[in-house]
Predict the structure of PD-(D/E)XK endonuclease-like domain-containing protein.
Amino acid sequence: MKDQAKDTYDALWVSHTSLSDFVTCPRSYYIKNVYKDPKRGRKIKLMSPPLALGSAVHEVLETISSLPKETRFNESLIDQLETVWEKIKHEKGGFANENLEEQYKKRAKKMLENVTVHKGPLAGPAVKIKMDLPHFWLSEKDNIILCGKLDWLEYLPDTDSVHIIDFKTGVNEEATDSLQLPIYFLIAQNCQLRPVTRVSYWYLDRNNKPQEQPLPNSQECVNEVYKIAKDIKLARSLNRFKCHYGECRNCKSLEKILKGQAQYVGVDEFNRDVYILPELTQDDTDTSIIL
């Protein structure tokens, strides 16, 4: 295997989010993943209430994923949400007013209450990958690394295998051709030793248990992800990131940051400058994140 400590800095890192950004709109990919503010020297992030909601719920559940099964629910998830919410309250989460913020906070509480009542696999044994950000070499030759955080890996003792569970906090269901579970499937295959025998989405606002999905084909996943990653690498080498439509809803909102039309609200935990747009405070579509 290639010496990761030596080469990871210069590699192209791709994730489900960045791959999806590029497929949807290369210009959007550029602004989110390449562009740095010339004055501050930092990458930028556009925050919205749905994104804030998803971030808060995922952070709470990520915290308990690191605990032994006997102690995961010793502390109220709602109490933990209160602590996490401090990071995204008011304008930091893109909330236009207190009423809007309260609506989203109630939705977050409802999801965590659902998990508390219907613990299901979250009460059983789980596998935790010993990497802050799980990653592996998608292509050593092309210097490409695939990375991503998996929400939950349930351990299945009968088969000594794992079940990937991805938490969903949005109102829309994931598209059938989404690469999210296939990418997590590859990461789980390459970053821990047990086979993956099940993959599921858990829509926390409306389902009491995970909804199992077809198991991806490993080689087909590699081929599809590798093709997109190669296209990204070429675009970066040519510095060519054009929107497929000249301008779309994805890049249009982000362009407003570059034009000085967005409100700056601070720096996040990944050292990105965070901005909000008033017109996005009611939007409930951009809800997918990689923790």
